[in-house]
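User: Run a structure prediction on this.
Assistant: Running it now.
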Amino acid sequence: MTPHPKIDAIVDTYLTLADAEAPGLVEGLYLEGSAALGDYRPGTSDVDFVAVTAEPPPAGVLERIHTRLGVHPFDGVYLTWDDLGHDPAELGERPQAHAGRLNRRGQVNPVTWHTLACHGLTCRGPKPEELKIWNDPGALATWTDGNLDGYWRRLVTRASHPSSLWWLTCLGGYGVVWVVTGVARLHYTLATGDITSKTGAGRYALEVFPDRWHRVVNEALRLREEDAALPTLASAVSGLGDHFGTPRRSLYGSPFERRRDVLDFAGQAITAAHELYEAR
C-alpha cells in the first residue's frame, strides 16, 4: 500500500507491464522521493522509483516497458542487487526513466542509496532494512557540497539573466518551489546527514534562516501546499492571478520582487551550506 491511490495505480500499471514484457525481471521495486518522504502531491509530484533486477536488464526490454507505460510521472533508476552494496561513484551509469521515456544511461548518486536505505517504501521485494545497502554519510556530504555549485549555483546564475529560460521560470510558482526548497534541502542534508522533502525543507528553513527570508520560504510552502505549480507556461500565466487577482493569494505584490528574493535566498543558502560542509 502506498500513500495515495494515484501512486497505487501507477505502480500496479508499471508492474503489470513489466511482468508481461519480461516475467521475473523486476525482483524489487521501491519508492523514494516525495512518496517515501511523506510529501506526495498528486497534482505536481512525480513518483520516484528504484527497480532492482538480478542482472543488468536489456535496454530494449526497458524501452518497451516505458513506451507502453506512456507519460505517467514515473521516474527512476534500474539497479541490480549487487549494485546496492556498492558506492554509486564506482558504478558509472545505469538505465534511468524520466518523463515517460527511458534515458539509456544516467549517473547515479549517494542520495538514492541513502533515501532507499533510510526511507525507501517497498512495493516488491525485501524491505530495505533486510538488505545490505551501501550508505556512507561522508560521501553523501561530499556529493551534496559539490551539487551546491555544480547544479544550484549555475541555475541561480542562469536565472539572473533575462535571456535564460530559468529567468522566466522563476517568475512562476514552479521556480519558487524548486529553487527555495531545493537549496534548503541541501542545507538540511549537510546540517543533519539526512534527506528531507520539499515541505520538510521549507519548514526547516523557517527554523534556521533569519526572519529576512521567512516571506519567500512561506511563499514556497504556500505554493507547495496548493499543489498547482507546474513547469509549464499555462501554470506560470495562471499563477499571475496570485499577485494581481482578487483575492490576492501571494505574499508578494509583484512576481519580479518575488523572483529577486528567491534568487537572493538561494545565494545565501548555498553559501551557508558550504560553510556547514567546511566546518565538518
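The mean pLDDT is 94.
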